[in-house]
């Protein structure tokens, strides 16, 4: 497991929305972090949305996934995104590792990620077993696929939901809808 350095702050003109964590689950990237092609994309996306984010933490498939995600949650992350380990190989066990950390499942998020993947990449997107939900501490936890396309689909889905789900979790209610 690579260690997370000091968190990088959002741009000075943008207020922070809290801390976000990223866990990359990849046996190859754990041996050589330069092979990680999705963690930096997720980090940039979160920073662009005002979150304080450190470098992604990389663990091997079958490694201490739950412990690593738990450490991010204990560090007061409002959002934790994982990438990788959601497929069907013998070591793809990210959903099983983090499922006990989720108190309230949000299956529609990962259903939509798979639907978009099906439209773009084809039927292999349906092999993703990603899960999403709210942890006991009120953080959003989403397991994204390990492919760049799967991450792009996932971030696109989250782009339309992130503000709303965080507001809901923290009791801010529904945003008023404009009259049509």
From TrEMBL:
GO terms for molecular function: nucleotidyltransferase activity. GO terms for biological process: Mo-molybdopterin cofactor biosynthetic process. SUPFAM superfamilies: Molybdenum cofactor biosynthesis proteins. Keywords: Molybdenum cofactor biosynthesis, Nucleotidyltransferase, Transferase. Pathway: Cofactor biosynthesis; molybdopterin biosynthesis. Residues 21-165 form the MoaB/Mog domain. InterPro entries: MoaB/Mog-like_dom_sf (IPR036425), MoaB/Mog_dom (IPR001453), MoCF_biosynth_CS (IPR008284), MPT_Adenylyltrnsfr/MoaC-Rel (IPR051920). This is Molybdopterin adenylyltransferase. It comes from Curtobacterium flaccumfaciens.
